[in-house]
């Protein structure tokens, strides 16, 4: 039976705080899907975005994206106040300014986490503890990784100066952040089911090198003596070839004349195309060719 729907990452929903989230606009979108006769919502990965803010290059293959947490939901839980939200800067309507959104939103989510642990009669405390126990196999390493990454100002884990000693308070806050993400996601998914909308999920094709997955389990990956990937999807990474191809492309950009003739333009386009092909080959040298005798 045929079904139809829409592909939309939640970050692309309208949002008062610079980015779409799992709050009211997500529920309105589900209503829109149901009322327009759609049955599917393809969401793309909901994992924490890594390099270039891509959900396909994630810090974790399991954890959820903190930026999708609804701040309004935290106000309704009395973990934030309306006054807290008034201090958020004004964001553009047509794009996501990640460099501004990330620090401003994480600051408020961490403030909510502190309020959660201060409240002695917090009604969700037991649910939080159960979540931590059930998810500890991935949650504990992720919370430590996120804490250390923050302490090292976002550097890749191979470049950390502080490699151990994550603060217990920071680890606990990151555990709460994941708890709240999955609580909000579970609520939205339940609403989708009630409205007859099925979710089409997605995951990153590859595990990112700068991720808790590789940091916590280096023995499961092909890493060299500097802990950098040797093989990705059975392809051998040849740094010297990459450097040569990038150098060719940089030369094309540097030397391109302001007002080229047709012949000059074609020549530079040909050079750029050679650089592009060299770059592609440098990233995709088949394992069997580069490593004879290995299957």
- Count of distinct structural domains: 2
Q: Which percent range fits the helix content?
A: 40-55%
Q: Using the alpha-carbon principal axes, give the shape.
A: globular
Tally of contiguous helical segments: 11
Strand order across the largest sheet = 1-2-3
Return the CATH class of the largest domain.
Answer: Alpha Beta
The description of the largest β-sheet is: 3 strands, parallel
How are helices and strands ordered from N to C?
EHEHHHHHHEHEEHHEH
Beta percentage is: 5-15%
Compute the gyration radius: what is it?
23 Å
Number of strands: 6
CATH topology of the largest domain: TIM Barrel
Can you give the mean pLDDT? 85
Secondary structure category: mainly alpha
What is the rounded distance between the termini? 42 Å
CATH architecture of the largest domain: Alpha-Beta Barrel
The CATH homologous superfamily of the largest domain is called: Glycosidases
User: Which stretches are low in confidence, meaning pLDDT under 50 for 5 or more residues running?
Assistant: 282-295
